[in-house]
Here is the input.
Amino acid sequence: MKRLVVAALVLLSGCALPTPPPPVDSPEQVWNEQRARREAISRWTATGKLALNTPVTSGTASFDWHHSPEQDTLNIHGPLGGGHARLVANSDGVFLTDSMGKQYADHNAETLLMNALGWEIPLGGLHAWVRGVPLADVLYVYELDESGRLARLNQDGWEIRYRAWSDVNGVEMPRKIFMKTLPVTNEPADPIDVRLVIRQWKLQ
Here is the structure.
């Protein structure tokens, strides 16, 4: 299984990264402008693939994620989702239906995914990180590349690295996101590794 997961992570990493835009005079200014545009996006759909590697579970899946101010709907297809899983989060709570039709409910998406599928994915932060912006009101550290694009973000116990971007209607959106948990003690620990490749963005 470990060899298959390593192969999947290599596949998601891609063979080569696209050439970044040329350096800019003020990376911080570009970052602030693009960040404001991404934060203003209230409705979006992201479609792609993910790989998950934790001490207790590993695998890959395809996903499509529909977000609006009223509701998030995440559909997962493939081995990691056990065929198909559907998660819906709205003001009534968080609900998941697995491939066998069994339904789960909770008020916390991360707890629900862990109990239902054994996943450790930071959905509490991912709705922001997937758009290339930090969580509001949570301390963070970041690095920019020479083009003013976010290269690394450390926040809420995770390191998020942005490896590729796509231009979507004039807004640069993340295309490859590599995430892993940050150590909290000096003792060695197996990090949780999550990698996303977003094939298509639809913004509203």
